[in-house]
Design brief:
There is one protein chain. The protein has 1104 residues and is of the alpha+beta class. The chain has 5 domains: 3-46, no CATH class; 97-284, Beta Barrel (Cathepsin D, subunit A, domain 1), CATH 2.40.70.10; 305-610, Roll (HIV Type 1 Reverse Transcriptase, Chain A, domain 1); 691-875, Ribonuclease H-like superfamily/Ribonuclease H (Nucleotidyltransferase, domain 5), CATH 3.30.420; 893-1060, Endonuclease III, domain 1 (Orthogonal Bundle), CATH 1.10.340. It has 34 helices and 38 strands. A 6-stranded mixed beta barrel has the order 2-3-8-4-7-6. A 5-stranded mixed beta sheet has the order 30-29-28-31-32. A 4-stranded antiparallel beta sheet has the order 1-11-10-9. Helix 14 (623-631) packs antiparallel against helix 15. It comes from Araneus ventricosus (Orbweaver spider). It holds the Pfam family Peptidase_A17. Residues 1008-1062 form the Integrase zinc-binding domain.
């Protein structure tokens, strides 16, 4: 949006020109902010620039200037014209520094680059002779509009940091005179550096010749860097001439002009941050990968609602409503701190993307027909409407869109995606202004586990779920798109009237509408409402029943329920049988019997799960290739646990070799991996029964197994059904594997971690199944781990204690048993298997012989038999032999004072000691917080102790009723002893209405630590007051002897007061007038003092 358009928009909205608020005008604006450029009372976006700049932050893409050689002004002219650009001085540094007050200047130049229209655009470039490639920032590339080519090039920098480049553009660069041109390939990066330099450099006193044309006339002003020119043409740019303009400062001649280089000294420059171009940390990717071998933590607890989710729920409840036809109308949850006015002009970007789209569609007639059919259907269903010409076409937000062609897909061959994350000229997108909401439905693991318990199961999908939910008319203006029927046809503007896939809040709004529909229609469709709340993952349904009648009712109710909300279920598929095949035929090709549901392939005829792995076999593999292949094995519930575990173990071995992502693996490692992936196609031969229940089961038992090795650990769960007069049946339910941590850990600790993993996994399965289970039996082949589980956690060390505490809490109703290692199926997870070995392993698919195993295994192992075991005893806490110590030292109070320098903490310690004594003597135990009486009792005891030590003769005289001796320090204080035994000051103000402590303060002896602690306490409490105020505050309750010197010493020794002590500035006197310094005849100049002198206080003395 141009400056004039922005100004007209603000005026049309009658908004404030300073803060852009619509509730007042600029004359009534109370905002303290102003324009960053000129400091005047208007917004920075409304500032009118008088000098050209290449900063994309200042110039919109449509207003980039095209400079001519005549525009290259002298340094002094730029200095004079840039005084208003002081806002740039607050930017961060992006130039090299050498650690002290010197800063190294980077060679910068103004380079002219041809854009897609053939116009030469001036961009700011950095010349780097140490870079093998040249780079361009994303903002500069978007301004040029040149075609971007897909590449995959890793770029390495300092400290072996690397960044992967996936786009490249080719451009022609030239100098200002256009007498030299070069064709260069630029790699596209998000940003080259921060502003360079960090702050404005004062160059007024630099000896730069006036006839010199600089390559970058504004090199001393902080600006963004658009280009980085590498070593490919670096020395071709340089010329022979070189001018020295100061110490370590040079002007190097080049084809672009003179480059300023060298180092400068400036104490005002920020050198705390040092930058080197093209370095990036890959900590995010590395941390993600190391999660393979971190201590496992299954998400078994239901997450609490976040503040964002609570806000979105409240917003939905207030704004949604239901139309007469049953459809829901919702509003997108906009962030309150981001008004819609922050969305800049997006129409230009959408128009450009549309032209690029049509270029692709002209090359692909099939995609062109599918794309046109899709949008024609969109319009015919009234999911979008054309905007009339008399409307404000520039207002709102335009969504760029593109298509993804999937020829192999049998239902949706083309998917059109709307890009709600496209940035406008303001730097914001629609998704930046929207809340995402949160997750409302259950996770994939729970839905798939529950799907396996139904004898009769079905899957279905809501047709066009997002488009069946209408958007409030007040928000459709931010969902505009551009479309035309052919490349030469006029462009039309449309508004999308429904929830659009691609907006940040679309998944939340869709799932929230499904839940609201279930709640609204719960009375009419009770079974279907339950399915809608529990068995849906986005628009996919996986549900069923163990009774055919109920199964049939659910299917009928679910269709009617969704029709009430204007939605339609399609892609029906049910477990195959002669009866169900007629009732629930496939809503697909009649020959299709395999359905991919939530990432798993389900054969509805055999009612089994199958897997498919796409394998790329090469003779050389990189770490990235290995990770990519592992990620393709999608196994949510862990039915292929040993295979996944072996792949993870191999990935950890690669990690420990510290090889780069694109470095070829050693031959022996590559051969091991190749042997492993050659067996992956055999996954298609594995068929796993979907349902684990039997029709005539009288009881069900859940069995969990845990095991660990030096390579990894894992847990696996089986479901045992005991039918009537038949042998029990045991089927694999799920598993979870984890690679052992890279840090050395003992096998018993790994076994305990596996037991904790099994406990969490069992808890997760129990909450997901929502069915009655007779008993749960958990097995481990580690006797040490079982002994720890049966030990009170308070007797164990921290690592073991924390895990045992969690295990005991999660499995308090379950039973732990020991199993021999050869019968433990979890042993296969801890070591890993390839696909062929797993397919032939009955122990994994059918589990151990549970009936004989249960009969021969005792219910529990006695802990006493492991007390002498070294592994067990090493994790026991050392029990102290001495539990009570009697202290009869007479210096107890002095030792107590050495424990702390806090007066309040000292009183609390004494108060707790007195409470302990009271609880020992009394039958009623006090366990509440300390009371004021207890605090007072402790304080009086402490004061009595010190008064008895320092004022023993005075106390003896006062108890006899006589006065203190004439040699006593208390003789002028008229002391007396109160009811608590404290010596207080007498005086003549007994009838005053002030408190007792103020009338008769407690006398404190001098020269002891207690008095100093009291002064320090009051000094900190009153925010570090001065010595006189401190003394006055203390005397409100106490009368310390020698208090003035103590107060002075406490204030003087306070570190915070010392650091913040103000220093009096001594002003330098001005020059004497000429009459007083010029020799002259006596009385030639005479003066008359009409008033004065004036005396001022300077410290504790007077000065004229």
């Amino acid at each position: 949006m141009k400056l004039s358009d922005r100004t007209d928009l603000v005026k049309r909205l009658r908004a404030c020109l300073n803060c852009l608020s619509e509730f007042h005008v600029i004359s009534a604006c109370n905002s303290k902010r102003s324009c960053f450029v000129c400091k005047k009372k208007h917004h920075t976006l409304l500032h009118k620039y008088s000098t050209p700049t290449t900063d994309p932050k200042v110039f919109p893409s449509s207003e980039l200037p095209v400079a001519s050689p005549a525009d290259m002004c002298s340094v002094q002219e730029v200095v004079n014209n840039s005084e208003s650009n002081s806002f740039l001085e607050h930017s961060r540094a992006s130039f090299h520094t050498n650690g002290n007050c010197k800063s190294v200047l980077i060679n910068s130049a103004i380079i002219y680059v041809k854009d897609s229209q053939g116009i030469r655009r001036p961009l700011r470039a950095i010349l780097d002779c140490a870079s093998e490639s040249s780079f361009i920032s994303s903002n500069a590339a978007n301004v040029l509009g040149l075609k971007k080519q897909k590449v995959n090039i890793p770029i390495c920098g300092l400290n072996d940091a690397s960044i992967n480049i996936n786009r490249r553009i080719s451009a022609q660069i030239s100098n200002a005179k256009n007498d030299s041109q070069w064709d260069i390939d630029f790699l596209l990066v998000p940003k080259i550096s921060h502003l360079s330099p960090s702050k404005k450099i004062n160059v007024e006193h630099w000896n730069i010749p006036n006839n010199v044309q600089l390559a970058d006339p504004t090199f001393f002003i902080p600006q963004k860097v658009d280009l980085l020119l590498g070593a490919e043409l670096f020395f071709a740019f340089l010329e022979k001439d070189k001018i020295k303009i100061g110490n370590n400062l040079f002007l190097q001649s080049s084809c672009f002009g003179y480059l300023v280089s060298g180092n400068i000294s400036d104490n005002n420059l920020d050198i705390s941050t040092k930058y080197c171009f093209l370095t990036k940390n890959l900590e995010a990717l590395n941390k993600t990968l190391t999660n393979f071998w971190e201590i496992e933590d299954v998400d078994y607890q239901k997450a609490c609602n976040s503040e964002e989710l609570n806000y979105c729920n409240e917003h939905f409840a207030k704004t949604h409503f239901r139309k007469a036809n049953g459809k829901y109308v919702v509003s997108m949850p906009l962030k309150p701190e981001f008004p819609e006015i922050m969305l800049g002009n997006s129409k230009m970007i959408a128009s450009k993307r549309l032209d690029q789209l049509w270029t692709r569609l002209e090359r692909d007639p099939t995609m062109k027909a599918l794309y046109s059919d899709f949008l024609n259907e969109y319009e015919s269903l009234h999911h979008m409407e054309e905007v009339k010409e008399d409307a404000d076409l520039d207002a709102g937000y335009y969504l760029p869109h593109h298509g993804i062609l999937r020829p192999d897909n049998k239902t949706t061959k083309l998917r059109v995606l709307f890009n709600d994350s496209s940035k406008t000229i303001s730097g914001y997108s629609l998704n930046d202004l929207l809340y995402k909401g949160g997750v409302l439905q259950e996770d994939l693991f729970s839905i798939l586990i529950r799907f396996r318990k139904h004898i009769y199961a079905f899957t279905a999908d809501i047709k066009q779920m997002f488009r069946m939910i209408e958007l409030n008319e007040s928000q459709t203006k931010v969902q505009k798109i551009l479309w035309k029927n052919s490349k030469s046809s006029p462009t039309k503007v449309y508004e999308l009237r429904t929830v659009t896939y691609g907006t940040a809040s679309a998944p939340y709004l869709a799932t929230k509408v499904l839940q609201q529909l279930a709640l609204d229609e719960e009375k009419n469709f009770p079974l279907a409402s339950k399915v809608l709340l529990q068995d849906f993952y986005m628009d996919d349904c996986l549900s069923g029943s163990s009774e055919f009648t109920e199964f049939e009712t659910i299917q009928s109710e679910l269709r009617q329920l969704l029709q009430r909300g204007g939605m339609t279920l399609h892609k029906w598929c049910s477990s195959y049988s002669p009866t169900t095949a007629q009732e629930f035929p496939l809503d697909r090709n009649s020959e299709e019997i395999q359905v991919k549901t939530l990432g798993m392939i389900w054969n509805s005829v055999s009612d089994t799960f199958t897997y498919k792995a796409n394998v790329n076999i090469n003779h050389s593999y990189t770490k990235r290739d290995v990770l990519s292949q592992i990620a393709r094995i999608y196994d949510t519930v862990g039915l292929l646990g040993p295979v996944i575990s072996k792949a993870k173990i191999f990935m950890q071995q690669l990690w420990l070799l510290k090889l780069d992502w694109y470095e070829i693996r050693p031959p022996d490692i590559s051969q091991q991996w190749e042997n492993f992936i050659k067996t992956l196609p055999d996954l298609e031969k594995i068929k796993i029964p979907r349902c684990f229940l039997e029709t005539n089961a009288i009881r069900v038992i859940l069995h969990g197994f845990a095991d660990a090795s030096s390579k990894g650990y894992g847990a696996v769960i089986y479901f045992q059904t005991v039918p009537t007069n038949e042998e029990s049946n045991c089927r694999l339910l799920c598993s979870k594997s984890r690679v052992a941590p890279t840090t050395i850990m003992t096998i018993p600790r790994l076994e305990l971690s596996a037991c904790l993993l099994l406990s969490k996994l069992t808890h997760k399965v129990m909450s997901a199944l929502k069915m009655q289970i007779e008993s749960v039996q958990l097995w481990s082949d580690s006797t040490i781990a079982l002994a720890w589980i049966n030990t009170p956690p308070n007797l164990l060390k921290t690592f073991v204690s924390n895990r045992v505490s969690q295990i005991q809490q999660l499995t308090k109703d379950f039973q732990w048993k020991h199993i021999p290692s050869e019968c433990n199926p979890a042993d296969l997870i801890s070591r890993g298997l390839d696909v062929k070995a797993l397919a032939a392993n009955d122990l994994w698919w059918k589990g151990p012989d549970l009936e004989n195993l249960t009969a021969s295994t005792p219910d529990s192992l006695p802990v006493s038999s492991f007390v002498t075991d070294e592994c067990y005893s090493n994790e026991l806490k050392t029990i102290p032999k001495l539990t009570l110590k009697l202290n009869i030292d007479s210096n107890f109070i002095d030792n107590l004072l050495d424990l702390t320098n806090n007066f309040h903490k000292l009183i609390r310690i004494l108060a707790f000691i007195f409470r302990f004594i009271t609880n020992c003597k009394s039958g009623v135990k006090q366990r509440d917080s300390l009371t004021l009486e207890e605090y007072g009792k402790a304080e009086i005891f402490l004061i009595n102790h010190f008064q008895a030590r320092y004022f023993a003769p005075e106390i003896a005289c006062l108890k006899k009723g006589s006065s203190v001796s004439q040699s006593s320090k208390l003789k002028f204080l008229n002391p007396f002893i109160d009811k608590d035994g404290c010596i207080r000051v007498g005086g003549r103000i007994s009838y005053s209405n002030v408190s007792c402590n103020q009338k008769h303060p407690i006398i404190l002896p001098a020269g002891n630590k207690l008095v100093k602690l009291i002064f320090q306490c009051y000094h900190k409490r009153d925010f570090h007051v001065g010595q006189q105020a401190l003394l006055n505050t203390v005397r409100l309750k106490y009368w310390p002897l020698g208090g003035r010197s103590i107060a002075r010493k406490v204030v003087h020794e306070c570190v915070e007061c010392f650091k913040n002590k103000p220093v009096m500035a001594n002003q330098i006197m001005g020059d004497l007038p000429p009459e007083r310094v010029t020799p002259s005849s006596p009385f030639q100049n005479a003066g008359l003092d009409l008033c004065g002198p004036f005396f001022t206080n300077k410290g504790q003395s007077l000065a004229k």
